[in-house]
Amino acid sequence: MEPVTSHPYDADVRFDGGDLDCGNGLLLLIRKHIDPLARGGLLEILSTDSSVKEDLPAWCRMTKNELVSMVVQGRQRSYLVCKGGLAERKPAIDTRQPPASQIQIISKVVIPARLPPPAPAQEIAPFSVMGIGSWPRPRWMLSAMHEHMEGRLPGAEFQATADDAVRLAVEAQLRAGVDVVTDGEQRRDSYSSFVAGILDNCQLIPLTDLLPLVEDPEEFERELRALDVPAGEIRHPAVFGPLGRAKPLAVHELEFLKKITRKPAKIALPGPYLLTRTMWMECISDRAYATREDLAVDVVRVLREELAYLLAAGAALVQFDEPVLTEVVFTGASTQRSFMCGALSEKGNPQDELAFARDLLNAVVEGFPMNRTAVHVCRGNWTTDESACLSGSYASLLPTLKALNVGTFFLELCTPRAGELAVLKTLPEDRRIGVGVVNQKLGRVESAGEITAQLQKAVSIFGPHRVLITPDCGFATFADNPVTSAAVAEAKMGNMVIAANQLKEQFGQ
Hints:
Layout lengths: L12 E4 L9 H9 L7 E6 L4 H12 L2 E8 L2 E7 L56 H11 L5 H22 L23 E7 L10 H9 L9 E10 L6 H10 L5 E5 L1 H8 L12 H21 L4 E5 L2 H7 L19 H16 L7 E5 L20 H5 L5 E4 L20 E5 L11 H15 L4 E4 L15 H22 L2
């Protein structure tokens, strides 16, 4: 773009980015300022970094915002960006919640003096049926979510809307006859990145904002276009200061769930390895942490705090999601990416990464009741295209699974991509297996007979007292990209219940 002597329009909001470049924090500031604007709103960005001239147009193109004009005065450049396009501009621009002029870093992290002890919870019986976590969100819930993330819907209104969505998700599960309920993760934009909107010194940014951080922007752009949902609608956590947990991550979800049902409740949290991989981005994270391992210390701390308060509030089971374990062993070079988890940072060799993941999760659950903790592993749930998801036997993960000090393994098992069930026979006998018996990606509803046959095989390997029953993964891991409809999800769960009842009768459970 050629510079002009002055911008053709007055900005609605402006800020000075100083000498920050797009890969070193400027995009975080842009996101904070542009999100609260209505479409058609104008943002003026002041910058003295020369690389912004090249990177900002690429960012605008990827995010479908319009770079209107550029003014140059010596080293100082001024860029005028329109949210969306100028054709959408209205005379009155909504700036009711203008963002701060800079990222507010909270330097003091409050650490609880003592974590509360677990409270009693309902037992989860063998052959219990439950979801992995997520449930398709109504369209009005998705709209509320985007408005809230962009600063246009106050928190209280968002939570009230989410309460209604949770009621619908729970009612569907109860109609199907499940034994253990989840809240369907209705308040979350995805199963993992939601924490960035809650933790201190962490921010959600769209995947498109990562363009300047990758070695090959053109290749990254092609990968983003291959997603089943626009990359601007999938958000990624970015850490710009010491992590803190001033607010609970999911305790409020559990408290509302317990108000509307007496069924045992399961809460899913992103695992510590997953969070460390997704949050660690050089040029941003290293301003707060010298290494990825330093970041992991605080990730473990905040998850231990959350686990303690969830168990104290009566959660029957807390599940840690670690699908990125399969990305470690089933992808090649460190530059190869899988959007199943958004883990875009580099990784070491598989043996070191698996050991790191093992140690992190064991540090989180240390001292807590094993029977109330679990881990979930799958091979990707961002697309219905089976060929695009990861494949491989659990044999390569078996040593790691055996070394995890959790009481239940929720595993993707009904798809051929997961390999043979018998590989898992040597898992410790005091651990339960949540057997995936329906493929949430398929539009077809598996019959109760098909599910029963899979469960009979699982019982022959693990025994009846160790088997729990689940789908392979959630029905809507990413809020904007559910892999099935609520109606199909309910039908699948209903047939799982029919099969479970047959086994309960057979084995006297």
